Amino acid sequence: MNSTRVLVAEDDSAIRELLVHHLERDGFVPVQASDGPSTLRLTRDGIDLLLLDVGLPGIDGFDIARTLRREGRTTPIVMITARADEVDRVVGFELGADDYVTKPFSPREVVARVRAVLRRSGMKMDSSGNIRRFGRLEIDEAAREVRVDGRNVGLKPREYALLLALASYAGVALSRDVLLERVWGYDYDGDERTVDVHVRRLRMKLEEQQALGACLHTVHGFGYKFSQTSP
Predict the structure, then answer these.
(1) Residue 115's pLDDT band (boundaries 50, 70, 90)?
(2) Measured between alpha carbons, how far is 216 from 231 in angstroms, rounded to an integer?
(3) Quick check: 129 and 176 in contact, CB under 8 A?
(4) Which pLDDT score, from 0 to 100, does residue 188 have?
């Protein structure tokens, strides 16, 4: 049974209920929010994907996405808006959105986009929705632990956030700029080499000390990519 939790953050009750109906029909577990503050709270509590209306009352969708990414949260986000402006789409992607849907839309298209974004994230989760497993490696988001063969590796907070950011997009190359924004925050004005230093530390702790196959790959002149380790 699919236990993937999708938060539908939409203040229009008719649209929200329509999306919930189609998500349930496709086997997802929908969670509902109608304003910005409750959306932030529910996302922090732990969901697998956020369907985020830009025009939420209290805190708008752009500010929610900005806040979540500054906190180092890599929850996939599909933004929903009534505005078709290219500028709005660009802003959404720059704030860390994974996809963008413009009203009016087909609910079936939205569900298809949800599935596509989840596939791109490369995550495998247990029934609690909080553990991502990649062969011998598992990332426990609730405990903020990384374990190999069930033993805690003992990563520092920034190392954990960096690994989670990369593993959330397994198989996708992420630039150093994107990693800086997602792990260190949009206001960080340090050097890109900070990412390189932390990746070296991660490799030492995972690949050398834990005898894992290479899981952190350098994309020369660009950034890094996480690949699933062997079982």
Answers:
(1) confident
(2) 16
(3) no
(4) 67
Residue of 141, 27, 156 lying closest to 133 (CA atoms): 141
Domain boundaries, the chain: 5-121, 131-226
The answer to whether the Cα torsion of 75, 80, 86, 88 is positive or negative is negative
Quick one: CA torsion of 19, 21, 22, 26, rounded to 10 degrees? Answer: 130
Total residues belonging to the chain: 231
Flag whether pLDDT at 126 surpasses 50: no
Are 201 and 160 a contacting pair, CB within 8 Å? no
- Domain 5-121: give its CATH architecture: 3-Layer(aba) Sandwich (3.40)
* Whether the predicted pLDDT of 60 surpasses 80: yes
> What would the DSSP string read from start to end of the chain?
----EEEEE-S-HHHHHHHHHHHHHTT-EEEEE-SHHHHHHHHHHH-SEEEEETT-SSS-HHHHHHHHHHTT----EEEEES---HHHHHHHHHTT-SEEEESS--HHHHHHHHHHHHHHHT--B-TTS-EEEETTEEEETTTTEEEETTEE----HHHHHHHHHHHTTTT--EEHHHHIIIII-TT--S-THHHHHHHHHHHIIIIISS-PPP-EEEETTTEEEE-PPP-
- Of 148 and 133, the one with more pLDDT: 148
CB 109 within 8 A of CB 203: no
Instruction: Please give the model's pTM, rounded to 2 decimal places.
Output: 0.53
Instruction: Extract the tokens encoding 107.
Output: 């609910």
User: What CATH number belongs to 131-226?
Assistant: 1.10.10.10
